[in-house]
Design goal:
The complex is a heterodimer of chains A (113) and B (114).
Chain A lengths: L2 E3 L4 E5 L4 E3 L2 E3 L6 E7 L6 E7 L6 E3 L2 E6 L4 E6 L8 E8 L5 E3 L3 E6 L1
Parallel strand pairs in A: 2-12
Antiparallel strand pairs in A: 1-4, 3-9, 5-6, 5-10, 7-8, 8-9, 10-11, 10-12
Chain B lengths: L3 E3 L3 E4 L5 E7 L5 E8 L3 E8 L6 E2 L6 E7 L2 E6 L8 E8 L9 E2 L3 E5 L1
The chains are: A mainly beta (113), B mainly beta (114).
Chain lengths: 113, 114
C-alpha cells in the first residue's frame, strides 16, 4: 500500500524563524516520485519540487530546502528565515506506477509577524 | 504558464440537484484530474482522464461522474447532490509524456449543498 504521512497538522512560528515540515512515505515500488505543493489562502496548489527515488541529493532553492532520505522514507521541507507570505497549507505527495498521486493530509503553516 | 480555470469559485446548490463543475486548461495537457479536499483528509482523487472520452475512477467516485468531450475541458457531475458532497473541489492537469509530471491546479470551487 502507498501512503504519505504529514504528522504535523499545524505549525506556528514567528517571522524569521526556521521551520521544517515533515513528510514520511510508504511504497513498495523502487521507482517513485515525491512532490511538495503549497496552497496559499487563494486556494490554488502551487508546485514546489519533484524528486525521483534515484536522486537523494538535497536541494536548495532560495529560502527553501528539501532533505530526501530513503533510509527513513522521508522527504522533509525546510523554510529558512520564514516570512508571513510563507503562511499556507503545504502538501507532500507520492506518485509511482500510475497517474495517481497520493497526497498527505497537509500541514498548515502560520508565520506570525 | 499553464492555466487551469475552474468555472466557479463558490457555488451553493440544493440537495437532489444535478451539479456541473467545469474545468478548462490551456496547455494541451492530456491528463486531467478531479479531487476533493476536506479538512484532515487532504486531497482525494475522484476521477481522472488521460485522453478525450477516456476516464478512470479514482479513490472516491461514488456519487460523481465526469465528461471529457474535448481535450481542454473536463467536467465533474454530481448526479443528485447530497450534503456530504459539500467540499472544496480541485481540478488539475498534467502532460502524459511522463506520468510523473507535476500536476497544475485550478483555484478550486467551494461547493455547498444545502
Amino acid at each position: 500500500a502507498q501512503k504519505v504521512t504529514q504528522a504535523q497538522t499545524e505549525i506556528s512560528v514567528v517571522e524569521k524563524e526556521d521551520v521544517t515540515l515533515d513528510c514520511v512515505y510508504e511504497t513498495r515500488d523502487t521507482t517513485y516520485y515525491l512532490f511538495w505543493y503549497k496552497q496559499p489562502p487563494s486556494g490554488e496548489l502551487v508546485f514546489l519540487i519533484r524528486r525521483n527515488s534515484f536522486d537523494e541529493q538535497n536541494e536548495i532553492s532560495g529560502r527553501y530546502s528539501w532533505n530526501f532520505q530513503k533510509s527513513t522514507s522521508s522527504f522533509n521541507f525546510t523554510i529558512t528565515a520564514s516570512q508571513v507570505v510563507d503562511s499556507a497549507v503545504y502538501f507532500c505527495a507520492l506518485s509511482s506506477g500510475t497517474y495517481k498521486y497520493i497526497f498527505g493530509t497537509g500541514t498548515r503553516l502560520k508565520v506570525l509577524a | 504558464d499553464v492555466k487551469v480555470t475552474q468555472s466557479s469559485r463558490y457555488l451553493v446548490k440544493r440537495t437532489g440537484e444535478k451539479v456541473f463543475l467545469e474545468c478548462v486548461q490551456d496547455m494541451d495537457h492530456e491528463n486531467m484530474f478531479w479531487y476533493r479536499q476536506d479538512p484532515g483528509l487532504g486531497l482525494r482523487l475522484i476521477y481522472f482522464s488521460y485522453d478525450v472520452k477516456m476516464k478512470e475512477k479514482g479513490d472516491i467516485p461514488e456519487g460523481y461522474s465526469v465528461s471529457r468531450e474535448k481535450k481542454e475541458r473536463f467536467s465533474l457531475i454530481l448526479e443528485s447532490a447530497s450534503t456530504n458532497q459539500t467540499s472544496m473541489y480541485l481540478c488539475a492537469s498534467s502532460l502524459v509524456t511522463d506520468s510523473h509530471q507535476p500536476q497544475h491546479f485550478g483555484d478550486g470551487t467551494r461547493l455547498s449543498i444545502l
